[in-house]
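Enoyl reductase (ER) domain-containing protein
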Amino acid sequence: MASDIRGEVSNKQVVLKNYACGFPKESDFEVTTTTIKLKVPEDSKNAVLLKTLYLSCDPYLRGRMRYTPVTDPDFCSYTLGSPISGFAVATVVDSGHPDFKKGDLVWGRRVGWEEYSLVTTPECLTKILHIDVPLSYYTGILGMPGITAYFGFFEICSPKKGESVYVSAASGAVGQLVGQIAKLMGCYVVGSAGSKEKVELLKSKFGFDGAFNYKEEHDLDAALKRYFPEGIDIYFENVGGKMLDAVLLNMRLRGRIAACGMISQYNLHQPETIQNLTNIVYKRIRIQGFVVMDYFDQYSKFLDFILPCIREGKIVYVEDIAEGLESGPAALIGLFSGRNIGKQVVKVTDE
């Protein structure tokens, strides 16, 4: 950390150069260096200045890498020439907000992909109180993906013991947790992933009853019938497109679908059409989309469930950690080709 005579330090950033068309490329980003004073500016008295420790690579960021009329600050387009932002784990360097003080560890959203980030909406930050687990977990199992898995499964899917559960993108940040939570509930669980290594991970480490490589299946309908001969009660949707179409054929009467994400569609110019929607009517299927921010006010309830599971070894979590801010663009882009194994994290600096 070099400082100059004005009391400023260097601040490396990941900046968006171009709006992405199709699959994003590393050339759509640029790693630049600017300077910053380690003090909350006089005109931002309520802000919090953070030193970034870990950045979270999440598929939803793809939507912000294109020009969109959405105005929600968590989903709107990034500004070209400025650092991208998202969920992160950080330590407080300076604070103008009474709830945060220097040295506090926090996790939250709207944190820039940079070494130091000024957060002007500190209500988006949560103080980290439990440090007997890896801090990087607050980008995953103890952060947004964990909350997504927990409330998406329990609130949207209303699971019952013995039901059949299918999870797509099952080795990812959310899917690996949904499957393990479903097993704790006494459900039969099958997941799909995109490589032999990931399929083995689902069965050997996460305890799924079955798993298959969707890239090796020429007929997804037949694959699902192989694993669910009596149909699917609950589908945790992370993929969309052809996978969703096949699932609709295999849902049981009054099945539930939690629409969490549709990663197969994010880079397409023309989204795939769904042919089997009439099954929703005849099978009385309930399909519901949700956004994790709707459940942030219930974070303590989630922690009461998940922390004992981690400490007692009932749930395990796999991370794929890239080292250094410079590795951020490649790590983020890798999500869309399935390069990562487990939750993709970028480690910016030592804790």
